[in-house]
């Protein structure tokens, strides 16, 4: 059996849904397919805006209506009005969403975030399930919150692998053996007491990998708007090249450094069970794409990765002592408590610097906690560039004209933070 994952871009309108149906019909067999789908288009961003407005007691009704219109306009193009079960389902979901938005309480921000933001995937999977059925495909809708079990680390639920695998193995092989195509949600999971969690933004690739792992799938395909895994994001860098095949190791590093085409957590479950991952274009499904798996280490074209909106923080010692392991341990402890992830770090005799994603709330807490012990300085609005498998020409071309604040080079990887 295999797993298909369709992201927001591949289900952004009615034509995109028709294309998904074409791919399902032509590249899979009923009884051997589980589909993971993300929220349509930019729905998750829209839900984040609605949630933060509702939480701040601001007017959000217009945004909610726009989101509802978007879903109903896609539905109206796909379904005739008299075939109304899908419309009822969408109405119910929006009524539920509205009710939850009206009952937010001031604390529990992250917990409530998950309950609200998860509606995107519930809506998208409802649309896709009904649409495939209308097209005479044997689709069944699966509530993945009953299968992907997580702890209650809101916004980044940690998967309970043993329990998740047990539940999936208990029910899904039988559902598939009855000839069904399972349609489920990406990005979301559930706790043992029935609360919804999310797995981290852009986490649907990871959801698909969880299902692939637990079902010991033969392969998994993520359908994207690009020709495969390229050596850079074509929206940012000109003249990209596609990797026809690439190892898990190389891919996991690219994802870690910020290649947003694959969620960084996706690779490990697949590599653990040696399940190949295909990145293919939903715009040109016949084309070869990229195969990620066990493969010989060839010399790869340099890969260019850009992380935007970075913050460079420097911790200086206040007396004339050096940065010690004791200091570092204090800093790391606070970073871990605040869930601040380090993208790059470097120390000198009297200071320690890190580059992280800019999050004003977390930064404020960090400074508040450590200001008595360290002199803290920071710069925001920075870019972090990484070149994997660099050569001197790629470094020269990329750094030209940039004001570099921090740089680092290992045998295979060159990184620098600079002003945007
Ligand atoms: N190395 C890369 N190769 C291909 N695409 C990349 C790469 N790095 C970033 N991207 C971007 O990833 C996008 C696809 O990922 P994403 O938007 O998350 O898809 P979806 O939300 O549909 O799953 C591409 O449109 C491209 O702009
Ligand atoms: N909808 C979620 C999860 C996701 O992975 O979406 P996509 O597959 O469109 O990147 C998000 O936008 O974060």
UniProtKB/TrEMBL annotation:
Keyword Nucleotide-binding included in the entry's annotation: yes
InterPro entries, sorted: AceGlu_kinase-like_sf, ACT-like_dom_sf, Asp/Glu/Uridylate_kinase, Asp_kinase, AsparK_Bifunc_asparK/hSer_DH
GO cellular-component term (any): cytosol
Species of origin: Adhaeribacter soli
Catalytic function, reaction form: L-aspartate + ATP = 4-phospho-L-aspartate + ADP
A GO term, aspect molecular function: ATP binding
Keyword terms of this UniProt record: Amino-acid biosynthesis, ATP-binding, Kinase, Nucleotide-binding, Transferase
UniProt domain Aspartate/glutamate/uridylate kinase: residue ranges: 3-281
Alphabetical list of SUPFAM superfamilies matching this protein: ACT-like, Carbamate kinase-like
Recorded superkingdom: Bacteria
Pfam families in the record: AA_kinase (PF00696)
Keyword ATP-binding among UniProt keywords: yes
Recorded family membership: Belongs to the aspartokinase family.
Coiled coil: none
This enzyme's EC code(s): 2.7.2.4
Name of the protein: Aspartokinase
Pathway where it operates: Amino-acid biosynthesis; L-lysine biosynthesis via DAP pathway; (S)-tetrahydrodipicolinate from L-aspartate: step 1/4; Amino-acid biosynthesis; L-threonine biosynthesis; L-threonine from L-aspartate: step 1/5; Amino-acid biosynthesis; L-methionine biosynthesis via de novo pathway; L-homoserine from L-aspartate: step 1/3
GO biological process: homoserine biosynthetic process; lysine biosynthetic process via diaminopimelate; threonine biosynthetic process
Leading EC class: transferase
